């Protein structure tokens, strides 16, 4: 275990915290009556429902654009600089929302925050995947989902605490002002982040990449830095292979090639669909409108806010467990079981809402709350962290930013559809809206079980074989003797020249 590597992985999770808190805090804000009172909005009218939907829809729309923009920025200026630019955008957006004096100003800030959140939700797991060793990549990149849900939990507890503030305007302004803290922490810590070694090799800076790899992946007893040498060798050879196939010819040309090749179209489909399936469990609708759901179960006052905070806290715990499972059980089995469990949980909640919603039946409403917690047990323990790990590792280095950005855009596309329509759907068809989140995950689990390849334990360069592409150097099937012979060639070959340059 390399503690420096873990430190860097967790330092960049200020980005995860940024996305988690800044996307979830709206659930607490719309649970505070003072927010609607300040802007003279009646959330129970059709006009109020549209504005409530717009707060989430604009965030999702901004996130969609942010996902696409980061695909260009990450390759143009590097992963580290992209992280710094993203953090700055989120800080400005938070300030605009907290200082809003008109609903239009708030919605502009919400859109900007969505743009920054889309960027940070791509660049954080992408960066983590490129600096993590194969054997622990699931746990390391899974920290994104874990800390992201810590942000959800902090948003929930912030809303609960602010409910008791006497100054009603300060209630919701404080919730929004605290959005500045996570991206500010990311910006302050960013000078200590090394650039991604894979980005450096892709831009012909092998000597610096080698020095970073040695520091990131050095382990006790590896005095010759064998792991770093092997990894650099794989990265170089795979990038050489990709260049011979036409990659690294510009951002626009890259997108064209990306859709021309069947194996890459397959990766794009799987990544986009995976993040879409995450949203099709109903997670964001349940999270962002959870206080209103508790109202539908005849729970009011501070109780819904406390239940919401506890729900998000439990989600964070389950995400931590999810991250630990990925390198042991694998990505696909965990996600298949999770989707089935989510569908069952939503079915139970829907039945309770249909039968007991709006009544004083404490037992029936209690079971409704139970099914919401059962849902997050399955979702947090299977889908959240897993989806970011899988979507960030299935693309080759030359197009990883584009592939990961396109994949995470699926989250915002489906989120835009589900959250924009949710307030109106709640008012018109009620519990029937949740049938979507029962049927789609069951189909998704079946498709994933039959079609998605497992990537556990493979180096990023070796995953190409799972999609039918050529792998320049595959070390996953070599014996210890064969690896030892390869190491000798590395010690005496081109990579040794890097030490003379350093």
UniProtKB/TrEMBL annotation:
Q: Does the keyword Transmembrane helix apply?
A: yes
> So what family is this one in?
Belongs to the major facilitator superfamily. Sugar transporter (TC 2.A.1.1) family.
Where found, per UniProt?
A: Membrane
* Protein name per UniProt: General substrate transporter
- Tell me which UniProt keywords the record has, alphabetically: Membrane, Transmembrane, Transmembrane helix, Transport
Main location (coarse class): membrane
Domain of life from the UniProt record = Eukaryota
Single GO molecular function:
carbohydrate:proton symporter activity
GO CC annotations? membrane
Q: How does it sit in the membrane?
A: Multi-pass membrane protein
Record field: transmembrane: 7-31, 51-73, 85-105, 140-158, 268-287, 307-325, 332-358, 370-391, 403-421, 433-452
Keyword Signal on this protein? no
The UniProt entry, under PROSITE patterns, shows: MFS, SUGAR_TRANSPORT_2
The residue ranges of the Major facilitator superfamily (MFS) profile domain are 8-456
Q: Entry's Pfam families?
A: Sugar_tr (PF00083)
